[in-house]
Structure formats: structure tokens, C-alpha cells
Amino acid sequence: MSEMTCRERVLAAINHQQPDRTPRDILLEPRVAEMLQGYFGVSDLRAALKNDIVYVHPAPTRLRHDYSAYFTRPGVTWDEWGRGRVWDSEDHYAEYLYPLERAETVEEILAYPFPDLEAAYRYEGLAEKVRGFQEAGLAVIGEVSETTFEIAWQLRSMDRLFDDMLHQDEKAVVLLDQITKRNAYAARQLALAGVDILYTGDDVAMQSGLMMSPRLWREWLRPRLRQVINAAREARPDLPVKYHSDGKINDLIPDLIEAGVTILNPVQPECVDHRWVKATYGDRLAFDGGLGVQSVLPFGTPEEVRAHVRQVISILGEGGGLVVGPSHVIERDTPLENILAMLQAIDEFG
User: Fold this and answer.
1) Is residue 68 pLDDT above 90, yes or no?
2) What's the whole-model pTM score?
3) Which residues contact 89 (CB under 8 A, 6 or more apart)?
4) Are 214 and 251 in contact (CB under 8 A)?
């Protein structure tokens, strides 16, 4: 087989065709990226890692909301959604503060300064940027600015959001709808810009199972996921959709497929059986990720890492259908020799 471009390789794999080699998407925690930049002597790691994919997003907001009225503690930072964080000394883990936790009325939700994802300037030049990457042979993933459930609980708090949902409170309806309509608009603009894959999702599972009942997810989140996907597919009916959720997502996989998901990420090996998910859903889903960042990559030997990579590729990548990579960012507890063993094994077994 002749050598494919990165884009051709990714598109073949996600369409269940056998590429010339397994495409890869190696994501790194920032300190790990800095370490590898020093090791390889480069500022841009994409070529050194042989990543086949680049990501594009809506441009940063120009709004400058002052969220300090919601937070009285010192040292709080907030993003464009107004989610407050107090970071640890390593700037790695954060305590969340919730600006809408004390909201008692729908009017307070509606008055909240949501971001301007529906502003035209945030998509200026995006199509040209996408086309430039594609002409360079790269596959382009368009990442919806954020997810829906996670933004909602990080604004409202998980306790209060679940309480609202369980009691059919209109505040949950309004909050989730305000987030969803912005994400749906972003998804459509990314599709119009020509991205190869739309990337969305929500962390809705733990290691042992779902954070909520399937019934609650189907009632509150499935229709909003469909709304985001449908907005993109109105512009591009055949656009592949990659959905992310950490944890044991097994019980929702049929619903995700029904909603329009075609690629599942990150198929965490610590809690999703790869043989089962490939045999059960491999004709309808491609897979992205697969390498254990909680187990083999940080704690195995280089030889165990090599064996793990070979197993993941042989199972999830059989006949195509896999973009291999870590099942989350590679964290700083992963030894350099294990990262190098992973890269070498993907070269060898991919």
C-alpha cells in the first residue's frame, strides 16, 4: 500500500477501511509537552509525535465580563463561561466555584453573561485555516467550544444541577438550553468551515458506571446532543462526529449511535472492555484513544507498554476503525522511557 497523507489515513480509519498505518493522536499535559520539546529539541511536537490530526476552535472571545461579583475569594480565575477556579501550586488541579449555585429563579439564569459563541467574528478566517491544514495533508477536528452537562454543573454545581433535573425545575431547562444553542451554533460553523470531524462530548461516567441513570441522561442530555449534531449535519450530512466521555460509558453506547455519534473516545481500557466494544459496536463506531493513562503508561515497564500498544492496535484497529492515542492526556507521572516505548511501538505495530 502506498503511503497515505495524514488526512487520508484518518479518514480511511474512521470509515472502517484499513489505512497504511494506524493514525495517531497523542495528547499531552502541558508539563509533559515542555519536557518532550526539550528532549526532541523542537517547539512544535506534532511532527516529532507523528500526530495525524490538528484541532481548530472558535476564535477567543473579545468580551471582558467581570465575574468578580460572583466570587469573594482571592486568587480566583475564570474562563469565558465564568467558571471560577482556584488552582493548586502546580497549576494542574483546581477547586471549582459556581457562579450560578445560588440562583433561585429562571430570570437569574437568563440574566447571566453567557459567552458570545454566536458572534460572527469568532469564525472569521476559520474556513481558510481549515483548508490550509488540509492542503498540508492533515486531518482537521473541529472542537465545539465546550460540552453541555459539564458546563452546566460547573456553573450551577453538580448537586444543584442534579436536584433541578430530578425535580423537573425550569432552571435546569433554561441553563442547558442556553449552553446547547451556543454549542449548536458553533458546531454548524465548524461544519461550514469544512472540518473533517466534529468533536463534542461530556464526561457522564465514572470508572464503575454512569453518573446518572440512563433514563435521566436520555431525558435531559440526549436531545441536546442531537441538537448539536443535527446543527452540524444540516450543513454537512455526512460529517463524522467524535464523542468523548471518560469512564464506563457502555450503557449509553446504543443511544450515542442513535444520536449520530460515529467515533467513540477514549475507550478507557481500565473500564471499557476492548474486545467487547469492538465486537459489539465496531461495525457502527470507530474508536479513538485506547491506551491506559491510569495503568500501563505510567506504571508499566517499557516492555509492558509495548505489549499494551500492540494489543490495543490489534483489537480496536482490526480492519481499520482506530485512531490510537492515550485515553486522556499523558500525565507527568508517565516516565519518558514509557512515552518513547509507546511511540516506538505505534511505529512498529501500527
Assistant:
1) no
2) 0.96
3) none
4) yes
Parallel/antiparallel/unpaired status of strands 94-97 and 84-87: antiparallel
Q: Give the torsion sign (CA, 285, 25, 266, 98).
A: negative
State the SS3 of the chain: CCCCCHHHHHHHHHCCCCCCCCCECCCECHHHHHHHHHHHCCCCCHHHHCCCEEEECCCCCCCCCCCHHHCCCCCCEECCCCCEEEECCCCCCEEEECCCCCCCCHHHHHCCCCCCCCCHHHHCCHHHHHHHHHHCCCEEEEECCCCCHHHHHHHHCHHHHHHHHHCCCHHHHHHHHHHHHHHHHHHHHHHHCCCCEEEEECCCECCCCECCCHHHHHHHCHHHHHHHHHHHHHHCCCCCEEEECCCCCHHHHHHHHHHCCCEEECCCCCCCCHHHHHHHHCCCCEEEEEECCCCHHHHCCHHHHHHHHHHHHHHHCCCCCEEEEECCCECCCCCHHHHHHHHHHHHHHC
Residue 50 CB contacts under 8 Å (≥ 6 apart), including other chains: 24, 343, 346, 347
Among residues 78, 262, 329, 306, the alpha carbon closest in space to that of 253 is found at: 262
Most distant CA pair in the chain: distance in Å?
A: 62
Instruction: Write out pLDDT tens, residues 40-50.
Output: 999 999 999 99
Report pLDDT digits (tens) over 304-332: 999 999 999 999 999 999 999 999 999 99
Measure the CA–CA gap between 227 and 237, rounded to whole angstroms.
14
If phi > 0 it is left, if psi is from -120 to 50 it is alpha, else beta; for residue 210 that is beta
